[in-house]
From TrEMBL:
Catalytic residue list: 138 (proton donor/acceptor), 167 (schiff-base intermediate with substrate)
UniProt keyword annotations, A-Z: Lyase, Schiff base
GO molecular function: lyase activity
InterPro entries: Aldolase_TIM (IPR013785), DapA-like (IPR002220), Schiff_base-form_aldolases_AS (IPR020625)
Record's protein name: Dihydrodipicolinate synthase family protein
PROSITE patterns assigned to the protein according to its UniProt record, in alphabetical order: DHDPS_2
Record family assignment: Belongs to the DapA family.
Organism: Salmonella enterica subsp. enterica serovar Mbandaka
Signal sequence segment: none
Residues involved in pyruvate binding: 212
GO cellular component, one term: cytosol
């Protein structure tokens, strides 16, 4: 299997399990990873947005990456987030990922300072030229403050063979449609993942590769079920699962960020993990938990 063909289906953005002191909970982390592998996910994303990388020290990021990659032990493909506001720091995280021999890395555009498209292009080009791991772009304009334009994505895909795909977290399926329409003619093998859970089915229909849905951490029977039904052309099954998945979308509005909500949902699904989160965020409170239980019930979970 080539590096590119590994990337299809459902890659949950895995929460980082920590204790009350904000230290990596290795037992809980291993429990969650084993649960996801047993649930037949196609791969995992470590240290993405839902992995709380933005609230971690450098040391904790490195420790988390090393422990998780070792524990997974090539059972499934690993996509590792290496984002930072500093291009040089991204390269350093990327070279660490090279040493771990991950399957690919996920890279946001730098945030806080507003950059021209040329500066964003230079960032991704510099990273791709200085690491061995394949690069998947990460577009999340609601958090970074800047959208990766379709023209910029197309240029990066055309110019850099080491940039192999994109996770597009834009709340509009037309953005993915335009990426497919513009990028695939020049890079037919370019991987396109939906970042929003409820757009994964539409992404597959349009010709994309799958999704990176946080709900796969606690409802893999829905997200993985949608992908399996798509592959087996069981469309009525797929539509039914999609309707149930759509009922979960309100989970993300229960708190901002939703790190504690996702961890509590995983625990409620029967996986024995702690629900501690990194400061400044708090774990889910009683109101959150009550609302969460109702949402899960409406989705038949």
């Amino acid at each position: 299997m080539t590096q590119i063909t590994k990337f299809h289906g459902v890659f949950p953005p895995v929460p980082t399990i920590v204790n009350a002191q904000g230290e990596l909970d290795k037992v809980g982390m291993a429990t969650l990873l084993d649960h996801l592998i047993a649930s037949k996910v196609n791969g995992v994303l470590l240290l993405g947005s839902g992995g709380e990388f933005c609230h971690m020290t450098n040391a904790l990021r490195l420790e988390t990456a090393e422990f998780c990659v070792r524990h997974i032990n090539r059972r499934i493909p690993v996509l590792l987030g290496i984002s930072s506001t500093s291009t040089q720091e991204v390269i350093e995280y990327g070279q660490h990922a090279d040493r771990l021999e991950v399957d690919a890395v996920l890279v946001l555009n730098p945030y806080y300072a507003r950059l021209t498209d040329e500066y964003i292009y230079h960032h991704f080009k510099t990273v791709a030229n200085n690491i061995k791991s394949p690069v998947i772009l990460y577009n999340f304009p609601a958090l970074t403050g800047q959208d990766l334009s379709v023209d910029l994505i197309t240029r990066l895909a055309q110019d850099h063979p080491n940039i192999i795909g994109i996770k597009d977290t834009v709340d509009n399926i037309s953005h993915i449609r335009e990426i497919i329409n513009n990028v695939r003619p020049v890079r037919p093998d370019f991987v396109i993942f939906s970042g929003y859970d409820e757009y994964m089915m539409d992404t597959l229909i349009l010709g994309g590769n799958g999704g990176i849905p946080a709900t796969a951490n606690f409802a893999p029977q829905l997200t993985c079920g949608i992908y399996r039904a798509w592959c087996e052309k069981e469309y009525e099954t797929m539509f039914g699962l999609q309707r149930r998945l759509s009922a979960l979308s309100t989970i993300y509005s229960q708190d901002s960020p939703f790190f504690g909500i996702i961890k509590k949902a995983i625990q409620l699904s029967g996986v024995d993990i702690s629900t501690h989160v990194m400061p400044p965020v708090f774990p889910a409170n009683e109101e959150h938990i009550s609302n969460l239980k109702q949402i899960l019930q409406r989705a038949g979970l």
